[in-house]
Structure formats: structure tokens, C-alpha cells
Amino acid sequence: MFIIVDDRDIVTNGYASRFGREGISSTGFCPGEFRDWVETVAADDLSAVEAFILGDCQDRSAYPKLIRERSRAPVIALNENPSLERTLELFAAGVDDVVRNPVHVRELLARVGAIRRRYEAADAQAIVGEMRVFFDGRDPEIRGEILPLPRRERRILEYLVTNRNRRVSKSQIFNAIYGIFDEDVEESVVESHVSKLRKKLRQRLGYDPIDSRRYLGYCLTAP
């Protein structure tokens, strides 16, 4: 899930809509609401946030420190009137990247992926057993062949790979894929998506790489 902060609803709603078309959950905040939320939100909910996008808003330079007290998710600032002085000020405040607004959401996804790789010293992809999983919107490969997946199933696989060898709950997957503010979708939909994903992986791999434990959640494992 992506969090967008801006004074203007047209900006937050616009980016939320564009993220939605890419199959990415997101939500927008005005500055005052965002400060209250990030200071009080439950840790499990906050762990579902993949990145924070800071648009034009008052006291923006104070937000990176506020975020870092509770999350290691990448922080990207949008700059509508770029200047060297403003860019240096934002980096000094602790943002991970500064981009000119407007920017295509696919570029934001690519930049977030690059920031994560710097954090984790990881590659642009992850290899788990015979699977190669990408984090830039491409379908995974199994034994060198592409496995076409619907967006939700692909996002679940990416989330499980990111948390491989660590068990994650149904609620954590739901929050990461649908967002913690989506009240129009039932959490049980995760079970259906995971079931379909497991069937496709089992058909290609010959085994089920997703270990499921009742009440404990799911874990991606390699043979």
C-alpha cells in the first residue's frame, strides 16, 4: 500500500486512482490527518505500507523524521517547482528520493524498488527455488518460463517473497494488497486468491511452495 500526503484532494485522489489502475492499493491524507495517523496507527497496519509519497504540504520537511520513528518504508518527495536549494533541503530532511510532479506511478514503483534494493542490498528480482519473482510489475518466471498471473495473485506472491521464510497472516496480506482502509472488500478474499495462486504454482513446480497453517498464516518456502 502507498500513502500519499498532499494539501490538495485533486493530487491525492489522482495518484490513488492511477495506483489503482496498476493494481496497487493506496490512500491519501491531508497533512494534519497524516500526522495523527502515523503516530497512532497499529504496527501491523503500518507494516503494510510500501512507501510514502509526500506532495506539496506545510511542514513537509518534518514528515520524514516522523515516519522513520515507526517505519523503514521508502519516502519520496514530489517537487512541482524543482530547484537545487529545495532538493537539497528535502534530502537533508531525510527523504529517499525527490522527483518532479507529476510523475507516472510506474516510475514511482521503479524508484521504490531501487530504494529497497539499496536498503536490503538485494537484486531487482528474487530467486526462490525454481522461481524468479520481479518487483516491477512483470509476471514471475518458473524454470525460465513466464507464469501469467492476475495482478492480485502476483502482488500476493511478491509480498510472500519479500517476507520469505517468515509467516504472515491473512490480515497482513490483505492490508498490503487492498489497503487498510478498503471496507468494500472482505478479508476472506485473500484465501481465494492464495488458493488459486497455490494451484498454479503447484502445477508448474510439482509441489506447493506456500505453507499454510491455520490461525498462523502463510509462509513461502523453497525446497
UniProtKB/TrEMBL annotation:
Key words of the record: DNA-binding, Phosphoprotein, Transcription, Transcription regulation
Gene3D superfamilies: 3.40.50.2300, Winged helix-like DNA-binding domain superfamily/Winged helix DNA-binding domain
Residue ranges of DNA binding: 123-222
Pfam families noted in UniProt: Trans_reg_C (PF00486)
Lineage summary: Bacteria, Pseudomonadati, Pseudomonadota, Alphaproteobacteria, Hyphomicrobiales
Domain OmpR/PhoB-type: 123-222
Any coiled-coil regions, as ranges: none
Transmembrane spans: none
Annotated GO MF terms: phosphorelay response regulator activity; transcription cis-regulatory region binding
Presence of the UniProt keyword Repeat in the record: no
InterPro entries to which the protein is assigned, alphabetical: CheY-like_superfamily (IPR011006), OmpR/PhoB-type_DNA-bd (IPR001867), Sig_transdc_resp-reg_C-effctor (IPR016032), Sig_transdc_resp-reg_receiver (IPR001789), WalR-like (IPR039420), WH-like_DNA-bd_sf (IPR036388)
Superkingdom of the organism of origin: Bacteria
One of the record's GO cellular component terms: protein-DNA complex
This protein's record includes keyword Transmembrane: no
Protein's name according to its UniProt entry: Response regulator transcription factor
